[in-house]
Design goal:
65 residues, mainly alpha, two-stranded antiparallel ribbon, 3 helices, 2 strands, 37% helix, binds iron/sulfur cluster
Length: 65
């Protein structure tokens, strides 16, 4: 997970999701049936990383965040 945190830290501040929104996104993922081992089954992304970029969204239809 240390490497994943490095990728998250490397996201430009202007592109990063605000902390409160980031927490909200991750709390939705935590209870989502598509989450498996920290990865989203729909997109194959680590949600910690996907949720950290502001313009990203949940790949589900309808979107969960
Ligand atoms: S990104 Fe969306 S579909 Fe994937 S685990 Fe999070 S809430 Fe679920």
């Amino acid at each position: 997970m240390a490497k994943l945190q490095e990728y998250i830290d490397a996201i430009e501040p202007s592109r990063r999701t605000p902390d409160d929104v980031y927490r909200d996104r991750l709390s939705v993922c935590e209870t989502c049936p598509q989450l498996s081992g920290g990865m989203c089954r729909l997109c194959g992304c680590f949600v910690l990383y996907r949720a950290a970029t502001a313009r990203n969204s949940c790949p589900d239809l309808p979107k969960r965040w």
